[in-house]
Write a structure and sequence with these properties.
The structure holds 2 protein chains of 2 kinds. Chain A is α/β, with parallel strands linked by helices. Helix content of chain A is about 35%, strand content about 30%. Chain A has 10 helices and 12 strands. In chain A, α2 packs across α4 (about 105-115), α5 (about 115-125) packs across α6 and α6 (about 145-155) runs parallel beside α7 (about 175-190). The longest helix of chain A has 18 residues, at about 175-190. By secondary structure, chain B is mostly helical. Chain B is built from 16 helices and no strands. Chain B has helices at about 35-45, 45-50, 55-80, 85-90, 100-135, 145-160, 170-190, 200-220, 225-235, 240-260, 260-265, 270-275, 280-305, 310-320, 325-355, 365-389. The chains are: A alpha/beta, B mainly alpha. The interface between A and B is large, with 55 and 49 residues.
Chain lengths: ~280, ~400
């Protein structure tokens, strides 16, 4: 069954188009990683899947129905998004944040009258292993804890599709693995469809079953990690000369980037960020 | 899959959800019986809650009593502060005032008390809602052009003769219009800078509007009676006739904003966060701003430009509510009512001390002076505390 379908999406913020004709179909229960250089339109595409941006042309379908046919709350009951960061809210505790996951279902008045909203929050916190943080103030948590709590919010939202925008940015390696492991676990136990923008190609290879590389506003490569992640991809999409080896323990590809390539026609006009 | 439940028709697979056996209220069987609901709650969330100190009815009862005691103490202090004897106050309690002292309490003291309480509640809730919706701890009715706009609206209405100076409905309508214009001007001054940057434009706009009010008052001082009551804000001189429409207006808007409070809590997490949870951020901010303008206008029409209540009290209310979204608006309303009642009691005491005797009946220390002085002190204390923690 198809969870999300993008048909001929184009988008521009005013200048050059960020996306120019993206077609992508995500099946129910898939874990898809979106990779590409900074500014290639990964996050833009994710925001369109969540109905937060309207494509200039093209359609996004949720469960086969055009997204524009849903109200915002109806979309939120189907799709949960975790943006890269959550602005600080003074005094907000973990349980109070996770309770907000009931908003798409209940609305403001419904939440006001709901006797056991805390119960739903506690369940979600249990599932993501952060029940012990329930009464902590969100702003006092570490980066890894925050992301787990935000996953609890997505769980409380009970949406079948989970969109993640750079969830592991600014986390140290241990917490990156922890958070992505939790995503994989939640996907298995709750049958979620996951589309994640990932900065780290190795993480995409390790955790996703399908990798979609965006380049020049289009889908450059799409398939299982072993087939998509190749030295050619590193050169064409990321502008990096490198080797790809197979991680014997996990059976997934692993990148060994060597040096940046000089910007050339194969790489378009976008200059690769040397930090990647 | 039972498709009758709105939150479940989109679930990927009911069997995959490990929490199915502990959901208390959503899993109603088709016949509507709730098997063992109480027991399940007892084992699940209830147990966790019981582990925290307090909780349950006893705590709520104690809280209710405490609130009531604070309210009554503040009210009694307010009524006694102009020099009324406790005996006179007791005499008023039977509802039928006898003699001049009792009638003064009935016809001046009580309306003044209600004016202070309603104004305080309205400004505090307006401030709380603005600070949340604009995500700025300095967003207050007096810093966003709303309060000065409302005062200017009232003064302009009276000066132009659109309505008589004592018309409660005219005053309210003019205050709403002025407040909305003031808020809109601040928004325009900021010109797409985003809600967080509204204060720069708001301060500028507020200063201009307050200046215009001063000009009007200087131009026709006789027309407005006590000019200070509009410029600095005062609960003095209000009688029952002034309170009718406005009190319902204020109570109704506080109720509306309380009903919206879960949405306001979602909005406080930012536009992306709100939109992702299904709340259109712009519409939500518009509703919140409309409520704040309506409440500020109600307050300004009653007591003029009372400053610092809408700025400082919401901070206290948030601390009292501990982030619980449902508690924020009631806490702000109560704290605002108590704060302005106490400030006005202090103003009446100061009036007696400063002016003394007969003069006190005519020239009073305006409530706004007390709120400005204490509010500034409270705010400095808050800023220092936030910096150290």
């Amino acid at each position: 069954m198809t969870a999300i379908e993008a048909r001929g999406l184009t988008f521009s913020y005013g200048g050059d188009p960020v996306l120019s004709g993206v077609d992508l179909t995500v099946s129910s229960g898939e874990f898809v990683a979106l990779v590409g250089v900074n500014g290639c339109g990964k996050s833009t595409l994710l925001r369109m899947f969540a109905g937060l941006l309207r494509p200039t042309t093209g359609t996004v379908l949720l469960d086969g129905v055009p997204l524009t046919g849903f109200s915002r709350r109806e979309v939120a009951r189907r799709v949960a998004v975790l943006h890269q960061t959550l602005p600080p809210v003074p005094g907000l505790t973990v349980r109070q944040l996770v309770r907000q996951g009931r908003y798409p279902t209940r609305g403001a008045l419904g939440m006001l009258c709901e006797p056991d909203a805390g119960h739903h929050a506690d369940q979600a916190l249990d599932l993501t292993g952060v029940a012990h943080l329930a009464d902590r103030v969100l702003d006092t948590l570490s980066g890894g804890e925050r992301q787990r709590v935000r996953l609890a919010l997505a769980v409380a939202q009970r949406a079948p599709v989970l969109l993640l925008d750079e969830l592991t940015a600014h986390l140290d390696i241990r917490h990156q693995l922890e958070v992505l492991g939790l995503v994989r676990e939640l996907r298995a136990t709750r049958g979620l469809t996951v589309v994640a923008v990932l900065h780290e190609i190795d993480h995409a290879a390790r955790f996703a079953e399908r990798v979609v590389a965006l380049h020049g506003g289009r889908v450059h490569a799409d398939g299982p990690p072993g087939r998509v992640i190749t030295p050619e991809l590193l050169a064409e999409v990321f502008g990096v000369a490198g080797r790809v080896v197979v991680d014997e323990l996990h059976g997934t590809p692993r990148c060994l980037p060597d040096h940046p390539l000089a910007p050339g026609p194969a790489h378009g006009t976008r200059v690769p960020a040397p930090t990647e | 899959m039972t498709a009758t439940r709105p939150d479940d028709d989109v679930s990927p697979d009911d069997h995959l959800r490990p929490d199915d056996d502990v959901r208390p209220s959503d899993d109603l069987p088709p016949d509507g019986v709730r098997p063992g609901r109480g027991m399940r709650q007892g084992r699940g969330a209830g147990q966790r809650r019981a582990a925290r100190p307090g909780g349950g009815l006893a705590r709520r009862g104690a809280l209710g009593v405490a609130v009531l005691v604070v309210l009554v103490v503040a009210a009694v202090a307010h009524l006694l502060s102009p020099g009324v004897s406790p005996g006179t106050l007791a005499g008023v309690l039977d509802g039928a005032p006898h003699g001049l002292p009792e009638r003064i309490v009935w016809e001046l003291g009580l309306p003044r008390l209600l004016t202070a309480a309603l104004t305080g509640a309205a400004l505090a809730v307006a401030g709380l809602v603005l600070q949340g919706a604009l995500r700025n701890p300095l967003a207050a009715p007096e810093f966003t052009g709303v309060n000065p706009g409302a005062v200017l609206g009232v003064l302009a209405g009276v000066a132009s003769g659109v309505f008589p100076a004592d018309s409660p409905t005219g005053t309210l309508a003019a205050a709403v219009l002025g407040g909305a214009v003031g808020g809109a001007l601040s928004w325009l001054f900021t010109a797409r800078g985003g809600p967080e940057r509204l204060i720069a434009g708001g301060l500028l706009c507020s200063a201009v509007l307050a200046g215009l009010s001063t000009m009007l008052l200087a131009y026709q001082p006789a027309r407005f009676g006590n000019a200070l009551r509009w410029l600095v804000g005062s609960a003095e001189g209000r009688v029952w006739d002034h309170l009718g429409v406005v009190s319902w207006w204020i109570v109704a808007w506080i109720a509306v904003l309380w009903a919206c409070s879960p949405a306001l809590a979602v909005l406080a997490g930012g536009d992306d966060h709100a939109a992702s949870l299904g709340l259109p951020p712009h519409a939500a901010r518009a509703v919140a701003s409309a409520g704040a303008v309506a409440l500020t206008a109600g307050a300004a029409g009653l007591a003029g430009a009372v400053a610092f209540v809408g700025l400082a009290v919401p901070h206290a209310a948030r601390w009292l509510a501990r982030g619980e979204p449902r508690a924020g608006v009631p806490a702000a309303a109560l704290a605002g009512a108590v704060a302005l009642t106490c400030a006005d009691a202090l103003a009446q005491l100061l009036t007696r001390l400063v002016a003394g005797g007969a003069l006190a009946q005519r020239v009073g220390v305006p409530t706004g002076v007390v709120t400005a002085l204490t509010g500034a002190a409270v705010l400095i204390a808050l800023v220092r505390r936030e910096r150290t923690t």
